[in-house]
Design brief:
Elements lengths: L7 E5 L4 H12 L3 E6 L2 H11 L2 E4 L5 H15 L4 E4 L14 H28 L3 E6 L12 H21 L4 E8 L2 E2 L1 H4 L5 H7 L6 E2 H12 L10 E4 L7
Length: about 240
C-alpha cells in the first residue's frame, strides 16, 4: 500500500532535479501524477517511464493554469496535491540587479506559485481537501547575500504559504513550505556559487540529494502530516542552526 494511493498530484518543474525526483517518488507511492514543465524534451520521456501525465506549462500564465486544472478535473475527477517546485535562480547583489532581472525572478518564483495555489484552491476543495507544498529556500528564511532577487522571491513564497494556509484551512487544504539548503540539482550546477564553502559551513558536511527534498514533499502531501499547515520545513544539513 502506497502513502499516496488514490491521490491525484500535480508537480511543477517536474522535468529534472527536485521535481523529477518528486514525480518518481510520488509515482512509487501510488499517486496519479501530473507533471508539468517547459523542458518538454526531458519531461515527456520521464512521464512515459513513470506512467504519468505530462503537460507543457508556463507557470506565469494564468489562463494556462486554468486550462490544465480543468483538464485534470475532467480526466482524473479530483486533485489532492500540488507541489509548486518550478523556479529560477539568478546571482546578483542589490546594486547590480537590474529591474528587469528582479521582475523576471519574481514573476517565475512568486507569481507562478500564487497562480498555482489560486488555480487549485476551489477544485481541491471540491475534491475533499488536500495539500499544497511550496518549495521555498533557506533564502526565504535568512539573508540571501549575492542573490537579492532570488531571496526576495523566496521570502514572498514563505509569506504567501502562511496566509494561504490560514485562508484554506477550513476547506480541508493544508499549505506548507519546504526550505532546502544546498541541493545537488541542475539549477545549482548552472550558477556560480561557492559550493565548497557552503559545504564546509554545513554541520552535516555534505550537499543534499534531490531525493531528500522529495521525501519531505511526500510527507507533506500525504496524510501523515495531517495536522501540519502554515509551517516551514527545513532541509539544510543544520546550516540554519548556526
Amino acid at each position: 500500500m502506497g502513502r499516496l494511493d488514490h491521490k491525484v498530484c500535480l508537480i511543477t518543474g517536474a522535468a529534472r532535479g527536485q521535481g523529477a525526483e518528486e514525480a518518481r517518488l510520488f509515482s512509487d507511492e501510488g499517486a496519479e501524477v501530473w507533471m508539468c514543465d517547459v523542458l518538454d524534451d526531458l519531461g515527456q520521456p520521464l512521464a512515459r517511464d513513470l506512467g504519468a501525465q505530462y503537460r507543457h506549462l508556463d507557470i506565469t500564465d494564468e489562463i494556462a493554469w486554468q486550462a490544465l486544472i480543468l483538464e485534470i478535473m475532467a480526466t482524473s475527477g479530483a486533485i489532492h496535491g500540488l507541489v509548486n517546485n518550478a523556479a529560477i535562480f539568478r546571482v546578483g547583489r542589490l546594486k547590480t540587479t537590474s529591474s528587469e532581472e528582479f521582475q523576471q525572478v519574481m514573476k517565475v518564483n512568486t507569481l507562478g506559485v500564487f497562480l498555482g495555489m489560486k488555480a487549485v484552491a476551489e477544485p481541491m476543495t471540491d475534491s475533499g481537501g488536500g495539500a499544497i507544498v511550496n518549495i521555498s529556500s533557506m533564502a526565504g528564511l535568512r539573508a540571501a547575500v549575492g542573490s537579492f532577487a532570488y531571496g526576495a522571491s523566496k521570502w514572498a513564497v514563505t509569506g504567501m504559504t502562511k496566509t494561504a494556509a490560514v485562508e484554506l484551512a477550513r476547506k480541508g487544504i493544508r499549505v506548507n513550505s519546504i526550505h532546502p539548503g544546498l541541493i545537488e540539482t541542475p539549477m545549482v550546477e548552472d550558477v556560480p556559487i561557492n559550493k565548497e564553502g557552503i559545504i564546509r559551513r554545513t554541520p552535516l558536511g555534505r550537499i543534499a540529494q534531490a531525493r531528500e527534498v522529495a521525501r519531505m514533499a511526500l510527507f507533506l502531501t500525504s496524510d501523515e502530516s495531517s495536522y501540519s499547515t502554515g509551517s516551514e520545513f527545513i532541509i539544510d544539513g543544520g546550516l540554519n542552526a548556526l
